[in-house]
Amino acid sequence: MRGCASTQRSLGTVELALPASALADSAVARWARDCGVTVGVRTSRELGIALAADIAPIRMTVHAGGLNADELLFCTVNLGVGRIVVDSLDQIEQLASAKGRRQRVLVAVTRRGTGVGFGFDTHEATDAYSAVLSCPRLDLVGLYSEVGPDEHHFVSHPAAIGDMLAEMTQIRRDHGVVLTRIGLGGHGFTFGDGVGGLADVATSVDETLDDACATLRFPRPVVTVLAEPANRMPLAS
């Protein structure tokens, strides 16, 4: 629990999202509830862990790719989760067909030009932006990218941030909408073995944002980093 708190402080203006798997530790779950920390949910199992830990749904960012259609509708209609990351047009159609409150959405994008793997490449993403923006029930608030060694992932978080900001600038030009959030996850974002690694990430993110936003004349978005526990094990207090 102390490690989580230290990690969050080290990130400064960058927002930490805990993976729901970390909530298996009761102390971490209590800290996340008390501090209103964002929780990332990637699978059905993780959704169950987050609910069992009594995390407020509004604090959950749910990755639609790890859920089936019924679970996805449950998240948006019954729970009212804070944000949903979509990586297919089918998921957008499912959300658009649901009844109830407006749902905030992030579109997952992959490295430019690959067209394979997680999410949309930056050409297919154009259709995804239009599909979300044309639906009265959906609210496009940002973009999400994975960083890692796979060919369809971005090789570094500066590359991902730069590409996403360029996409957000194009969305503003095409649709007159200013997106306010960037999500990052994947390889290299860990907590629990000291705070140096993510503190360095936060510094690099700040510098990249300052440069890219100044160059593109784009307002600075909120950046959320979905970090994994060191060694993929729950933290102890």
UniProtKB/TrEMBL annotation:
Xref: InterPro entries: De-COase2_N (IPR022644), PLP-binding_barrel (IPR029066)
Organism domain of life: Bacteria
Orn/DAP/Arg decarboxylase 2 N-terminal domain boundaries: 4-229
A GO molecular function held by the record: catalytic activity
A Pfam family hit: Orn_Arg_deC_N
Name of the featured protein: LysA protein
Organism ancestry: Bacteria, Bacillati, Actinomycetota, Actinomycetes, Mycobacteriales
